[in-house]
Amino acid sequence: MTAVTDAELVGRARHGDAAAFAALVERHGRAVYRAVLAALPDAAEADDVAQEAWVTVHRRLASFRGEASFRTWLLAIAWRKALDRRRSVRRWLRVVVTGADDAFDGSRAGRVAANSRGHIAPASSPEQLLLAAEQETVVRKLIRSLPRRLRDPLLMAGTRDATYEEIATVLDIPVGTLKWRVSEARKVLREKLARLGYGR
Length: 200
What we know:
By secondary structure, this protein is mainly alpha-helical.
Protein backbone atom coordinates (compact mmCIF):
# COMPACT_ATOMS: atom_id res chain seq x y z
CA MET A 1 0.00 0.00 0.00
CA THR A 2 1.41 3.38 -1.04
CA ALA A 3 1.93 5.79 1.85
CA VAL A 4 -0.02 9.03 1.79
CA THR A 5 2.29 11.90 0.87
CA ASP A 6 2.63 15.16 2.79
CA ALA A 7 1.16 16.99 -0.18
CA GLU A 8 -1.96 14.84 -0.08
CA LEU A 9 -2.34 15.34 3.66
CA VAL A 10 -1.87 19.09 3.29
CA GLY A 11 -4.52 19.17 0.58
CA ARG A 12 -6.99 17.36 2.80
CA ALA A 13 -6.15 19.48 5.84
CA ARG A 14 -6.79 22.65 3.85
CA HIS A 15 -10.34 21.42 3.33
CA GLY A 16 -10.93 20.89 7.03
CA ASP A 17 -9.82 17.28 7.40
CA ALA A 18 -8.70 17.21 11.04
CA ALA A 19 -7.42 13.65 10.74
CA ALA A 20 -5.11 14.67 7.88
CA PHE A 21 -3.61 17.48 9.94
CA ALA A 22 -3.21 15.14 12.90
CA ALA A 23 -1.32 12.78 10.60
CA LEU A 24 1.07 15.59 9.67
CA VAL A 25 1.64 16.35 13.35
CA GLU A 26 2.29 12.67 14.03
CA ARG A 27 4.70 12.44 11.10
CA HIS A 28 6.72 15.58 11.79
CA GLY A 29 6.05 16.42 15.44
CA ARG A 30 9.32 15.00 16.76
CA ALA A 31 11.40 16.90 14.20
CA VAL A 32 9.64 20.15 15.08
CA TYR A 33 10.15 19.63 18.80
CA ARG A 34 13.83 18.78 18.46
CA ALA A 35 14.46 21.79 16.21
CA VAL A 36 12.84 24.09 18.77
CA LEU A 37 14.65 22.42 21.68
CA ALA A 38 17.96 23.18 19.98
CA ALA A 39 17.32 26.88 20.45
CA LEU A 40 15.54 26.97 23.81
CA PRO A 41 16.67 26.24 27.36
CA ASP A 42 14.24 23.59 28.54
CA ALA A 43 11.79 20.95 27.43
CA ALA A 44 8.68 22.70 28.76
CA GLU A 45 9.39 25.91 26.88
CA ALA A 46 10.30 23.97 23.75
CA ASP A 47 7.00 22.10 23.96
CA ASP A 48 5.08 25.39 24.23
CA VAL A 49 6.84 26.86 21.21
CA ALA A 50 6.38 23.68 19.19
CA GLN A 51 2.64 23.85 19.86
CA GLU A 52 2.64 27.51 18.79
CA ALA A 53 4.42 26.52 15.60
CA TRP A 54 1.75 23.95 14.78
CA VAL A 55 -1.01 26.50 15.40
CA THR A 56 0.76 28.85 13.00
CA VAL A 57 1.19 26.09 10.42
CA HIS A 58 -2.51 25.24 10.59
CA ARG A 59 -3.43 28.89 10.14
CA ARG A 60 -1.06 29.31 7.19
CA LEU A 61 -1.80 26.09 5.31
CA ALA A 62 -3.61 28.03 2.60
CA SER A 63 -0.42 30.02 1.94
CA PHE A 64 1.77 26.94 1.46
CA ARG A 65 2.63 26.85 -2.24
CA GLY A 66 4.84 23.80 -2.34
CA GLU A 67 7.93 25.71 -3.52
CA ALA A 68 9.82 23.85 -0.79
CA SER A 69 8.79 20.58 0.82
CA PHE A 70 6.17 20.77 3.55
CA ARG A 71 8.77 19.54 6.04
CA THR A 72 11.19 22.33 5.14
CA TRP A 73 8.43 24.95 5.30
CA LEU A 74 7.31 23.58 8.65
CA LEU A 75 10.80 23.54 10.16
CA ALA A 76 11.38 27.11 9.00
CA ILE A 77 8.28 28.25 10.89
CA ALA A 78 9.28 26.31 14.00
CA TRP A 79 12.85 27.62 13.94
CA ARG A 80 11.72 31.23 13.62
CA LYS A 81 9.30 30.74 16.50
CA ALA A 82 12.12 29.32 18.60
CA LEU A 83 14.44 32.21 17.79
CA ASP A 84 11.76 34.65 18.91
CA ARG A 85 11.68 32.98 22.31
CA ARG A 86 15.30 32.04 22.72
CA ARG A 87 17.05 33.22 25.89
CA SER A 88 19.78 30.65 26.17
CA VAL A 89 21.10 27.62 24.30
CA ARG A 90 21.32 24.01 25.45
CA ARG A 91 23.19 21.30 23.57
CA TRP A 92 25.31 18.35 24.59
CA LEU A 93 29.05 18.81 24.28
CA ARG A 94 29.74 15.69 22.22
CA VAL A 95 27.03 16.23 19.61
CA VAL A 96 27.30 19.97 19.09
CA VAL A 97 30.97 20.71 19.59
CA THR A 98 32.58 17.67 18.03
CA GLY A 99 29.83 16.62 15.63
CA ALA A 100 30.08 13.03 16.92
CA ASP A 101 28.98 10.56 16.09
CA ASP A 102 30.16 10.83 12.52
CA ALA A 103 27.39 8.60 11.18
CA PHE A 104 25.57 11.85 10.41
CA ASP A 105 26.82 13.24 7.12
CA GLY A 106 24.06 15.76 6.45
CA SER A 107 21.90 13.37 4.44
CA ARG A 108 18.54 11.94 5.43
CA ALA A 109 20.01 8.43 5.51
CA GLY A 110 22.88 9.70 7.64
CA ARG A 111 20.45 11.32 10.03
CA VAL A 112 18.59 8.04 10.51
CA ALA A 113 21.87 6.18 11.06
CA ALA A 114 23.11 8.73 13.58
CA ASN A 115 19.85 8.81 15.49
CA SER A 116 19.78 5.02 15.67
CA ARG A 117 23.10 4.94 17.51
CA GLY A 118 23.75 5.64 21.17
CA HIS A 119 23.75 9.00 22.86
CA ILE A 120 26.33 10.20 25.33
CA ALA A 121 26.96 7.60 27.97
CA PRO A 122 25.75 8.74 31.40
CA ALA A 123 28.42 9.57 33.95
CA SER A 124 29.04 6.74 36.35
CA SER A 125 30.20 8.66 39.42
CA PRO A 126 29.30 11.90 41.25
CA GLU A 127 32.60 13.40 40.10
CA GLN A 128 31.85 12.59 36.47
CA LEU A 129 28.32 13.97 36.82
CA LEU A 130 29.70 17.21 38.22
CA LEU A 131 32.24 17.47 35.42
CA ALA A 132 29.56 16.81 32.78
CA ALA A 133 27.32 19.53 34.24
CA GLU A 134 30.23 21.96 34.39
CA GLN A 135 31.15 21.24 30.77
CA GLU A 136 27.56 21.73 29.62
CA THR A 137 27.41 25.10 31.38
CA VAL A 138 30.65 26.16 29.73
CA VAL A 139 29.46 25.00 26.32
CA ARG A 140 26.18 26.88 26.68
CA LYS A 141 28.07 30.09 27.37
CA LEU A 142 30.48 29.52 24.50
CA ILE A 143 27.66 28.78 22.06
CA ARG A 144 25.85 31.95 23.11
CA SER A 145 29.06 33.85 22.41
CA LEU A 146 29.21 32.66 18.79
CA PRO A 147 28.02 35.04 16.09
CA ARG A 148 24.53 34.14 14.93
CA ARG A 149 25.75 33.10 11.47
CA LEU A 150 27.73 30.28 13.14
CA ARG A 151 25.47 29.60 16.10
CA ASP A 152 22.22 28.91 14.23
CA PRO A 153 23.66 26.46 11.67
CA LEU A 154 25.46 24.61 14.48
CA LEU A 155 22.32 24.22 16.56
CA MET A 156 20.12 23.14 13.68
CA ALA A 157 22.67 20.59 12.50
CA GLY A 158 22.95 19.35 16.06
CA THR A 159 19.29 18.27 16.14
CA ARG A 160 19.94 15.63 13.45
CA ASP A 161 16.28 15.96 12.38
CA ALA A 162 16.92 17.85 9.15
CA THR A 163 19.29 17.32 6.26
CA TYR A 164 21.84 19.95 5.31
CA GLU A 165 19.68 20.74 2.29
CA GLU A 166 16.66 21.39 4.50
CA ILE A 167 18.65 23.48 6.98
CA ALA A 168 20.19 25.52 4.16
CA THR A 169 16.69 26.26 2.84
CA VAL A 170 15.46 27.32 6.28
CA LEU A 171 18.47 29.61 6.81
CA ASP A 172 18.48 30.78 3.19
CA ILE A 173 22.14 29.98 2.55
CA PRO A 174 23.91 27.60 0.12
CA VAL A 175 24.55 24.06 1.36
CA GLY A 176 28.31 24.56 1.00
CA THR A 177 28.16 27.67 3.16
CA LEU A 178 26.12 25.81 5.76
CA LYS A 179 28.65 22.98 5.98
CA TRP A 180 31.52 25.43 6.33
CA ARG A 181 29.74 27.37 9.09
CA VAL A 182 28.95 24.21 11.07
CA SER A 183 32.56 23.08 10.75
CA GLU A 184 33.89 26.52 11.66
CA ALA A 185 31.58 26.79 14.69
CA ARG A 186 32.80 23.43 16.00
CA LYS A 187 36.41 24.43 15.40
CA VAL A 188 35.97 27.70 17.31
CA LEU A 189 34.28 25.94 20.22
CA ARG A 190 36.94 23.24 20.41
CA GLU A 191 39.70 25.86 20.43
CA LYS A 192 37.97 27.83 23.19
CA LEU A 193 37.38 24.68 25.24
CA ALA A 194 41.03 23.70 24.84
CA ARG A 195 42.14 27.11 26.11
CA LEU A 196 39.87 26.59 29.13
CA GLY A 197 41.48 23.22 29.81
CA TYR A 198 38.71 20.93 28.51
CA GLY A 199 39.74 18.03 26.31
CA ARG A 200 37.73 16.67 23.41
